[in-house]
Amino acid sequence: MKPIQTLFLVFILILSACRTSPEFSYDIEKTAISDKAMVVSAHPEATRVGVEILEKGGNAIDASIGVQLALAVVYQNAGNIGGGGFMVYRDKDGKVKTLDYREKAPKAATRDMYLDSLGEATDKSRNGHLAVGVPGTVAGLFAAHKNGKLPFKDLIQPAIDLAENGFYLTKKQASSLNSKREDFVKYNTTPPVFVKEGEWKKGDRLVQKALAETLKRIRDNGQAGFYEGKTADLLVAEMQAGGGIITKDDLKSYEAKWREPISFTYKGYEIHSMPPPSSGGIALAQLLGSIEPYPIAEWGFQSPATTHLMIEAERRTYADRATHLGDMDFYKVPITQITNKEYLKNRMADFDPNKASLSKETEAGQVKESEETTHLSVVDGEGNAVSVTTTLNTSYGSKVIVSGGGFVLNNEMDDFSAKPGTPNFFGLVGAEANAIQPEKRMLSSMTPTIVEKDGRLFMVVGTPGGSTIITSVFQTFVNVVDFGMSMSEAVQAKRFHHQWLPNKVFYEANTFPDSVLTALTQKGQIMEERGSIGRVDAILVTEDGKLEGGADTRGDDHAAGL
Ligand code: DON
Question: What number of other Cβ atoms are within 10 A of residue 230's Cβ?
């Protein structure tokens, strides 16, 4: 080798060594207390961006936009510009509204598009180009920004910097990228930056130049920087290369929608959550309404009696979800009928404290005619609060990364009921209400929620976790209200989950002592241990008026106050 070549080689080696910092560790806080403002999100870099925006005079909406854009760079499993989400917003004067930026079925979608020649559901709704719904996130961020204070360019710049200069991977991120390597190769025509020689390691620096360019187009051209022009060209070219059906017309006609929240009370607390196309608000109202008459604080936290009651409420609620819930722009969802307390009392009339019901005998109530997502919670110094859950659906969505655009596309089409009664990725079944139709939004479980007590802000809460989102928010809330836990204790507490079908109670390791497992089994509950459930990020206003942030230890989630 000539000396000049040797020098060049040494230079390259030094450069690549600089891109890895095995010693690197983020300073992650799971509990934070502040007098003023708080940000809790799935990644320390994203939380930092949110806090810096608040420091510069941005409000909670501004911070939530900056955090979401940062998550699209540093937490690509779920943070996104190629997916969709929901926001619940309570302004400092107590006005609550919700923003729906859920993906939509492309105009060319058809009811049976995922069935094979024998009429069976295929995996095309989960992986690859046909799984992609028309992304809603960028439209949502611009709609939300009408309530912001700082210029949009100031909110997106931190994300551009993170994409352009890179950021360090955590151990969890490195192993998650490694675990999806084959999928990234299989579902992409050109290998994305997520694919590299050898394994990703903690402390590796991930630089995403193409993503930075896409974010700059959004900075410079607004919403049209994503839905029109070069980004739209790249997305549609990607679709055509891989057999997807999203067109430029689909992109241009996407609109985010403001909707009235689902609002209801539980033991004097006023709860506001997401309406359809999410099932979250309605299901949470059903769960809390079903257990409200019972003295669970007396029965004890995760005691056999309390757990059995909550499981039975979950069984009935998810049976209703499967039949009655879908996009209310396309299907008449009987919201008032199935959330009123008389209906819920009747629904629990056959609850037997000693015996599990059978899911096959638990039908949806009669109504008379008349694994990745991410959540962030923000409260600013003026008292505005934002609760956002956003997703690509499963980890890295469809696994398709737009060639030249550098962003991951969702696989949200799997949240439709591809075939009545056939479970989706999360084991959820559905029917007519959630059948595929052009431009319809697929049913979600995302449950961004804001709670008030005596007319004042009390809690901002939400989580990822597919079908377990609703039960995780439910349990976190009662942990505080009925069992007197702090925000952080409530977030870290172990969780369990029943979703009607399959007829099983899933629970995290070390949730129940043997005596409780035995008692529940004796009542007829079918208990099955599984991996972690949910990743709740929440904020509580404590009795002395401070803000307590709780970030879930199940992930890299980080809470920081101002
Ligand atoms: O909208 C929904 O309900 C799902 N697409 C959410 C997926 C999810 O939470 C995956 N995360 N672990």
Answer: 15
